[in-house]
Amino acid sequence: MVRTEGPSSLYKGLVAGLQRQMSFASVRIGLYDSVKQFYTKGSEHVGIGSRLLAGCTTGAMAVAMAQPTDVVKVRFQAQASTTGASRRYHGTMHAYRTIAREEGIRGLWKGTGPNIARNAIVNCTELVTYDLIKDALLRSTPMTDDLPCHFTSAFGAGFCTTIIASPVDVVKTRYMNSAHGQYCSAFNCAFTMLTKEGPTAFYKGFMPSFLRLGSWNVVMFVTYEQLKRAMMAHHNRAVPL
């Protein structure tokens, strides 16, 4: 891509991607701790069941609210190789209007079912694995609750997430980017892939997917931990003794 289209091609669809991440992350990550506490009723002991349930809940909530941003992001990335008049969408707002006009409002929520499944799986694997790896490192190694521990936990969470979520991710992307009427459902899309391309089709693009999820997890969790720590320190200073 860099050789044929230039370095800027790696950032095509950036605006749509930012819209998606800000809307998704604010719900699925920002509400995770609160939902986890709700399911445990404030108990300090948090079992894996409560963590999984909280991850599924916030993942599904994020999709319900932000699915249009994901549809637009996928469409933008799919037209990355086209230029000029052949481009179907010329901006994110133009994409929202075009999809709504040509496919109806439901077109903006195309693939919601597989996306809910995908985000429930990703959210559970990402957040729960990070929690479990971090707890294990703090218990079994000399690491403290600081940057090296956060980095290692996030990298491990990214790898586990890629293994678990890659099949759903491939189906979701294929279905959301399909022509109208090409597949009657996400299950039909998955069955067609399995019969025509074999099981390995579900792991196409594994390495780029791992690079994306691995780097995303490292940046997200390390930033999240530092921001959380800074906000708690500010809150403690603000509260009078």
UniProtKB/TrEMBL annotation:
Catalytic activity reported: H(+)(in) = H(+)(out); (S)-malate(out) + phosphate(in) + H(+)(in) = (S)-malate(in) + phosphate(out) + H(+)(out); oxaloacetate(out) + phosphate(in) + H(+)(in) = oxaloacetate(in) + phosphate(out) + H(+)(out); chloride(in) = chloride(out)
Gene Ontology annotations for the cellular component aspect, listed alphabetically: mitochondrial inner membrane
Biological process terms in GO annotation: transmembrane transport
Keywords assigned by UniProt, alphabetized: Membrane, Mitochondrion, Mitochondrion inner membrane, Repeat, Transmembrane, Transmembrane helix, Transport
Superkingdom of source: Eukaryota
Signal sequence residues: none
Per-repeat ranges for Solcar: 1-38, 46-136, 145-230
Keyword Membrane recorded: yes
Membrane topology per record: Multi-pass membrane protein
Chief localization: mitochondrion
PROSITE patterns associated with the record: SOLCAR
Cellular localization per UniProt: Mitochondrion inner membrane
Oligomeric form and interacting partners: Homotetramer. Adopts an asymmetrical dimer of dimers functional form.
Family statement drawn from the similarity comment of this UniProt entry: Belongs to the mitochondrial carrier (TC 2.A.29) family.
Annotated function: Antiporter that exports dicarboxylate intermediates of the Krebs cycle in exchange for phosphate plus a proton across the inner membrane of mitochondria, a process driven by mitochondrial motive force with an overall impact on glycolysis, glutaminolysis and glutathione-dependent redox balance. Continuous export of oxaloacetate and related four-carbon dicarboxylates from mitochondrial matrix into the cytosol negatively regulates the oxidation of acetyl-CoA substrates via the Krebs cycle, lowering the ATP/ADP ratio and reactive oxygen species (ROS) production.
Record protein name field: Dicarboxylate carrier UCP2
Gene source species: Synaphobranchus kaupii (Kaup's arrowtooth eel)
